Amino acid sequence: MTATERTRVVVVGAGFAGLNVVASLRGAPVDVTLVDQRNYHTFQPLLYQVATAALDAGDVAHQVRDVLRTNLNARFVLGRVVGIDLDARHVALADGDQLPYDHLVVAPGAVYHDFGIPGVREHAYVLKSAAEALALRAHVLKRFEEAARDPDAVDAGLLNVVIVGAGPTGVEMAGALVELFEHGMRSDFPELDVGRARVILLEALDTVMPPYTEATRAYVGKVLRARGVDVRLGAVVEEVTEDRVRLKDGSEIAYGTLVWAAGVRAHPLAEALGVELGRSGRVPVADDLSLPERPGVWIAGDLAGPVGAPPLDGGEGAYPQVAQVAIQQGKHVAYGIRAHLAGHPSRPFRYADRGQMAIVGRSAGVAELSPAWGGFRFTGLLGWLAWLFVHLIYLPGHQNRLRAFLGWAWEWVTYDRHARLILEPIDRDLDRAGPPPPRGTLGA
Ligand SMILES: Cc1cc2nc3c(=O)[nH]c(=O)nc-3n(C[C@H](O)[C@H](O)[C@H](O)COP(=O)(O)OP(=O)(O)OC[C@H]3O[C@@H](n4cnc5c(N)ncnc54)[C@H](O)[C@@H]3O)c2cc1C
């Protein structure tokens, strides 16, 4: 780099961590390149609302270029990073392009972990992107259409939704699905006995929502069961076939839709860093979030592993893989880069834990504030309102916030989950002129 050239910062991933790195470098004397495989940031905590027809995909996804509009030192590159050359100091994109860097922030998040269980990858839906949430929504709605034509198939489990994993994602999904069935599907399908549609929540441990206090877990279990979710604890999945989940105890559950929410592991891009990885493939980092012995390389968000921090997840000293950690780490990495430019030493990262929250369904939320925030615990309507408020604050984009708020208000008043659309990848046979259909099939 010559004296007149500016420092090049490449940020991989426009998630919670990556976006906060870029925002916190606003005005710094650097040229930032943010690269993501999608042109939008996904607000993952609300994806289940897209999958259950409460929100539209556009409400929870925000185009990155819009976020960068006021960041004059940042540009966006749409591309998938497939390699990182730490010696040559560039990242490689799937299309063959390379992005050279002086500082690199690796923040591609996590991917779902199937723990090597046969059939999960092929048959289960996951919630990770807006596209996947739409595919899951389409699948559930199509199952109802199929059942309307062939009600006997309901006996074979066509309307069973099996959710594996009773952490916050599985619990929120289960709670929202029973509401969709009760208030959306019941009126859409008068010809069907919608009461036979089941939501079965499987958890290998002996409790729902493991990271929460016992009182909260008891509340969540009670509300889910009262609303009709079939909660099965100690249920260890061993194999998945096209239409059945087989458990360790030998029993089988027929399903029409399978949702995998049983855990994540770090993004496989971690392997490109050539370091020994921690539990769940996470990258061990120095206490300032830099990659040890690789000056100018930083790790943030779900990918970052042990940081010499207290063992908050009961494990090896890594922080929990949640949005607050990613946001704070993104900001911290930006300060680290600024410190480096100014010739100052970097500071260790300290997570300011504010607590955790989730909702089980209409008017039923749980919020546990951290001791630093008073240690208060809310359940029910108060927890639900706290959840709404916090999610509205953090959802990026004024329009998204307004749309989400209006969507929730509409649903609150009418019980209507408005986005009950089966949107699928394009079908070339549907909207384009093609060969004429066989005689007698049109207007016959
Ligand atoms: C369904 C779901 C619900 C959740 N609910 C909550 C919740 O209620 N509260 C909470 O605190 N946390 C929740 N989380 C966790 C939270 O979303 C994550 O901890 C957070 O998103 C991590 O931020 P990140 O920046 O590390 O990664 P992400 O936000 O996942 O962003 C990673 C980005 O990298 C991009 N990327 C990935 N690979 C590549 C590549 N090869 N090339 C280019 N770009 C790439 C992705 O497209 C993505 O934009 C939830 C997660 C999920 C999946």
Write up this protein.
- By secondary structure, the protein is an alpha/beta fold.
- The chain folds into 2 domains: 7-37 and 79-112 and 264-342, FAD/NAD(P)-binding domain, CATH 3.50.50.60; 120-262 and 356-414, FAD/NAD(P)-binding domain, CATH 3.50.50.100.
- Helices cover 30% and strands 22% of the residues.
- It is built from 11 helices and 22 strands.
- A 5-stranded parallel beta sheet has the order 5-2-1-9-19. A 4-stranded parallel beta sheet has the order 13-12-11-17. It has a 3-stranded antiparallel beta sheet with strand order 6-7-8, with no helix packed on it.
- A hairpin with a 7-residue loop joins strand 21 and strand 22 (377-380).
- The radius of gyration is 23 Å and the shape is globular.
- The termini are far apart.
- The model is unreliable at 309-314 (pLDDT under 50).
- The site of flavin-adenine dinucleotide has 33 residues, from helix 1, strand 2, helix 7 and helix 9.
Quick recap of the structure?
This protein is an alpha/beta fold.
User: Distance between the terminal alpha carbons, to the nearest Å?
Assistant: 74 Å
| Major beta sheet summary | 5 strands, parallel
How many strand elements? 22
Query: Percentage of helical residues?
Result: 25-40%
CATH architecture of the largest domain: 3-Layer(bba) Sandwich
The fraction of residues in strands falls at 15-25%
Tally the structural domains.
2
List the ions, cofactors and other small molecules found in this model: flavin-adenine dinucleotide
Rounded mean pLDDT score: 92
According to CATH, what is the class of the largest domain?
Alpha Beta
The computed structural class is alpha/beta
**The CATH topology of the largest domain:** FAD/NAD(P)-binding domain
